[in-house]
Amino acid sequence: MATIDLGKIKQVFRGTYNNATAYAVDDLVVFTDGSVTSTYICTTASTGNNPSSGGTAHANWAFVAKGQATSPTTTQGDVIVRGASADGRLAIGSAGQVLKVNAGANGLEYGAGGGLVQTVTTHKNDTFSTNSTSYTDLTGLNVTITPTSSSNKILVLVNISYGGNTNLYGFGRLVRTTSGSSAVAIGMGNASSNRTQAGFPIQNVDIGNAVYHVKESSFMFLDSPNTTTSTEYQVQCFTHDNNSSLFINRPQNDDNSNYIGRFSSNIIAMEVTP
């Protein structure tokens, strides 16, 4: 009786693909393409042809069961992002950071979001007085902030409640002191020739001959300290006449013997992104 070769009557599992092995039609192999392990069937006799590359099957092979890439994440909060040629891990950022497009506009990163980063504030509720004609620290009206980025700016807002003798000129300025550096007057002039009402936030106290009512002066300044070290903002003030006193948070009676009520002043420093 003649012998008839029926060929393979079932698929043959050949194990993990070996580049040196000759494979016949209907051979099954397991092969890892990058990080994806899949099962393939030989469709045309093949030797030395990887079943797939970059996720695309070779012409001599076909997918039987295509695998899934192993997650590149390792830590809670990680996210998967597409890199230059494959998915990758983007580690979770720091507290308060946001996910944003990088400077090259070709990927994602964590960083400071636009807007407010942090706020530091101080309220001065006790009274303060000076009759000095030189700048004097307004005790208690200062804040210290440590910027998180040297490119960020600090918005400083100041509100001062004050009173004093009739027609007394009171002057103020804002001073910045960065850790390890000397104090620098910012936001307004500080030369003697510039001591005018228009140049300083505490203006002429002209309150008549009766009870001295409280007055307020407010200003803001957007500073660029260009640092990530501790930075202090201090309000200083002085009077134009050392025979008259400037009172903070304390409006005086005409004879300076009593005061009516007590008020408060404050300073706020806010770190903002450009």
Description:
The chain is an all-beta fold and 274 residues long. The protein folds into three domains: 12-65; 79-111, no CATH class; 116-272, Jelly Rolls. Helix content is 0%, strand content 45%. It is built from no helices and 22 strands. The radius of gyration is 38 Å and the shape is rod-shaped. The N and C termini lie far apart (92 Å).
Features:
single chain, 274 residues, mainly beta, Jelly Rolls, 3 domains, six-stranded antiparallel sheet, four-stranded mixed sheet, 0% helix
Describe the protein's topology.
Blueprint: E1 12-16, E2 22-23, E3 27-33, E4 36-42, E5 46-47, E6 52-53, E7 56-57, E8 61-65, E9 79-82, E10 87-90, E11 98-101, E12 108-111, E13 116-124, E14 128-130, E15 136-145, E16 153-164, E17 170-178, E18 184-186, E19 215-223, E20 231-239, E21 246-248, E22 265-272
Parallel strand pairs: 1-3
Antiparallel strand pairs: 2-5, 3-4, 4-8, 6-7, 9-10, 11-12, 13-22, 14-21, 15-20, 16-19, 16-21, 16-22, 17-18, 17-20
Write a brief structural summary:
The protein has 274 residues and is mostly beta strands.
- How large, in whole angstroms, is the Cα Rg? 38 Å
Overall strand count: 22
Number of domains: 3
Q: How many alpha or pi helices?
A: 0
Which band does the percent of strand residues land in? 35-45%
